[in-house]
Design brief:
Layout lengths: L7 H35 L20 E6 L7 H8 L2 E6 L13 H8 L3 H8 L9 E2 L4 H11 L5 E2 L15 E5 L8 E3 L2 E3 L1 H18 L11 E5 L2 H12 L2 H4 L5 E5 L8 E7 L15 H8 L2 E9 L1 H4 L3 H12 L3 E3 L6
Parallel strand pairs: 1-2, 3-4, 5-11, 5-12, 8-9, 8-10, 10-11
Antiparallel strand pairs: 6-7
């Protein structure tokens, strides 16, 4: 009933319109390509992702210098796409922090975890330039990572070297839960520690109350609560939602995994280490690059909460606890018993 009937003239007219539209679109594409090439010819700097460097508009271009930012997280196969187009290569990044995320354990174990940057650093140490002065954190927060990863060569700029939340505050704390009975819970690959999380939030609440006497709503310090374990993060995110004293600062408080915080910073950082067992198993806490990220996110205060009896089975953590003791930053969780 509602079907339209086209005669030959109408069909010919519609075909002609489609043909004309196709020609116009092709002409528009040619014009766009012409303009793009003109702009690129005049540009001194072209930015792209690693894979984007193979986009048809720049695929056949060569460059004097290739600069790869965050090269410590760049997959080697992807890195070669721009590298092959340049005469000189500059890679900026930190191979002592987290490598790229590899979903395939087999691929990772067979070399995909090794970045082009880490290989170049190993093969050509004479070409490495270390930026020694940092503008983020108090010197005591910086100290352990500087010693372990950077040959004790980092320096804190005068503007941050001594900055604190308030006078006489400690910039670094290791709160030891050994002997408190805060046992981890393992469910397959999911690991959490509810009692450690509860203790952490009691400590956060107390710190927030102390800060309310020094800060207003507009300049209230930013705070991150992080853990290596996703299940522990989910648990702490739920605790945060049920903590009315902290919810009023929800725009200033973040709860997430360590991996998600690479490249970010906060005034205060809490790290929930989570692992607590009689066997001294630390799991993937043994990847010290992850802890290097975690320990260098804080500007003015770093609080690490963990079980020294478990953590000390791994030399990196035994040395960190010794460093905390040297800085008068070790405390037992028993000191905060209610």
């Amino acid at each position: 009933k509602y079907k339209r009937s086209f005669g030959k003239a109408e069909r010919d007219q519609r075909k002609a319109l489609f043909d004309e539209a196709h020609k116009v679109m092709k002409e528009a594409d040619r014009t766009e390509q012409y303009i793009t090439e003109g702009l690129l010819d005049k540009a001194q700097v072209i930015t792209a992702t690693l894979v984007g460097a193979n986009h048809y508009s720049i695929r056949n271009r060569n460059y004097h210098t290739i600069v790869i930012d965050e090269a410590g997280q760049a997959l080697e196969p992807a890195s070669w796409i721009p590298v092959l187009k340049g005469k000189k290569l500059i890679m900026a990044g930190d191979h002592h922090q987290l490598p790229p995320t590899i979903k395939s354990k087999t691929a990772g174990s067979k070399g995909l975890n090794d970045t082009l940057m880490s290989k170049c650093v190993a093969l050509h140490p004479e070409a490495v330039i270390l930026l020694r002065e940092q503008y983020r954190m108090h010197k005591d927060i910086m100290g352990y990572s500087s010693f372990v990863f950077y040959g004790n060569s980092l320096e804190a700029h005068a503007s941050v070297a001594e900055h604190l939340l308030f006078t006489d505050d400690r910039p670094l704390n290791f709160i030891d839960t050994a002997g408190c009975g805060y046992e981890e819970k393992v469910e397959g690959a999911r690991i959490s520690n509810a009692e450690e999380a509860s203790f952490l939030f009691r400590h956060v609440n107390q710190l927030v109350r102390n800060m309310e006497g020094h800060y207003g709503a507009k300049d209230f310090p930013s705070l991150a609560i992080i853990s290596p374990y996703r299940q522990q993060v989910l648990l702490m995110q739920d605790m945060m939602l049920h903590n009315p004293d902290l919810l009023k600062y929800k725009d200033r408080i973040s709860v997430n995994t360590i991996d998600s915080f690479q490249g970010q910073e906060r005034d205060i950082v809490y790290i929930s280490m989570t692992r607590s067992n009689s066997e001294g198993v630390v799991g993937f806490l043994s990847d010290t690059r992850r802890m290097n990220v975690a320990m260098t996110r804080a500007r003015k205060k770093l609080i690490v909460i963990g079980d020294s009896a478990t953590l000390s089975s791994f030399p990196f953590y035994a040395d960190f606890i010794a460093y905390a003791e040297q800085k008068n930053a070790w405390q037992s969780a028993w000191e905060f018993a209610e």
